[in-house]
Design goal:
Blueprint lengths: L1 H8 L6 H13 L3 E4 L6 H11 L4 E5 L7 H4 E6 L4 E6 L6 E5 L6 H13 L1 E4 L2 E4 L5 E6 L12 H4 L4 E4 L5 H12 L11 H11 L6 H15 L7 H4 L2 E3 L3 H17 L7 H12 L4 E2 L1 H6 L3 H11 L8 H9 L1
Parallel strand pairs: 1-8, 1-9, 2-5, 5-8
Antiparallel strand pairs: 3-4, 6-7, 10-11
Helix pairs in contact: 1-3, 2-11, 9-11, 11-12, 12-14
GO molecular function: ATP binding; ATP hydrolysis activity
Keywords: ATP-binding, Nucleotide-binding
Family: Belongs to the MoxR family.
Length: 324
């Protein structure tokens, strides 16, 4: 994974937080929802990542006139043979970039999110499995932009993380301009999809202490019933809390982050680092929160201050429990 990150960093400048979350999603087998303005290397990142793992890459530009068949494929009639043939859509790839997903209507969004959840497509009664590993990175415009269809809460919940991307610094932008205007960088393939699948299986073997699982469940439970945990001031701002998928993705992401950081066990900081990205898109804010200018990230920080993580687990204790 370090070699993959090194190759990607040869092309992509800055965006360290974003790149780390992309690798976490790859190892954990999750999907990413990315929000940011155009021109911040979202397409370049996924395309470069596909080259480093010798995987297939497709990009879909979502538009209001898109139909589900443009994504998953359809049956085509051949007049010469008098038979139907199946043409598979661009979702059949290892890395899929769904650009500006909130510009397409709900029917198209549901078609993509069904593939993300089930990992398969049914066309004319025949089921087709998407290749593994399979990662979807969907980008969306800020909600203030005109001509967008906000994703329903039930569909957004299927994304493992929502990552916010900001503009680069002046120093980073100087390097970006220098690289783009210079000779194109060649990206080497450092791994295969089979090796990546083996890393994903290895990631699930990382040890997670039960206290960290309880902590993840507690954080998610607070978003559903703030008054039960003596946080009555949050009740008026949250109309709907996070689902159990948030707890699952917190633990799966902590395992992947621990592996990226060179460990075979998760630590409290691994869980805490992922809390904003995993929970922010799962909170449905009330109209009162919008009126007061309260964001999901602000509410998450208040919950983290109120409920600190458990003490660090000793590595010797971890090894004993893992062997047991």
């Amino acid at each position: 994974m370090e070699r993959i990150l090194y190759e990607v960093k040869r092309v992509v400048v800055g965006q360290d937080h974003f790149l780390e979350r992309v690798l976490v999603a790859v190892l954990a087998g999750g999907h990413l929802l990315v929000e940011g303005v155009p021109g911040l290397a979202k397409t370049l990142t996924v395309n470069t990542l596909a080259k480093t793992i010798r995987g297939s890459f497709h990009r879909i530009q979502f538009t209001p006139d898109l139909v589900p068949a443009d994504l998953i494929g359809t049956r085509i009639y051949n007049q010469k043979t008098g038979e139907f043939s199946t043409t598979l859509g661009p979702v059949f790839s290892n890395l899929l970039l769904a650009d500006e997903i909130n510009r397409a209507p709900a029917k198209v969004q549901s078609a993509l999110l069904e593939v993300m959840q089930e990992g398969q497509v049914t066309i004319a009664g025949v089921t087709h499995r998407v290749p593994q590993p399979f990662l979807v990175m969907a980008t969306q415009n800020p909600i203030e932009t005109e001509g967008t269809y906000p994703l329903p809460e039930a569909q957004v919940d299927r994304f493992m993380m929502k990552v916010l991307i900001s503009y680069p610094t002046e120093e980073e932008e100087f390097v970006i301009v220098s690289r783009v205007t210079a000779r194109e960088q060649d990206v080497s393939a450092v791994t295969t999809t089979d090796e990546l699948a083996r890393l994903q299986r290895h990631c699930r073997e990382c040890y997670v202490d039960p206290s960290l699982v309880r902590y993840a469940v507690r954080l998610v439970a607070v978003t559903r019933s703030p008054a039960r945990y003596d946080m009555n001031d949050l009740s008026k701002y949250i109309s709907c809390g996070a689902s159990p998928r948030a707890s699952i993705h917190l633990i799966e992401g902590a395992r992947a982050l621990a592996l990226l950081r060179g460990r075979h066990h998760a630590r409290p900081e691994d869980v805490v680092d992922l809390v904003p990205d995993v929970i922010r898109h799962r909170l449905s804010l009330s109209y009162e929160a919008l009126a007061d200018g309260v964001t999901a990230d602000q509410l998450i920080l208040r919950i983290l201050k109120r409920f600190p993580p458990p003490e660090k687990v000793l590595e010797s204790h971890v090894r004993i429990d893992a062997n047991a």
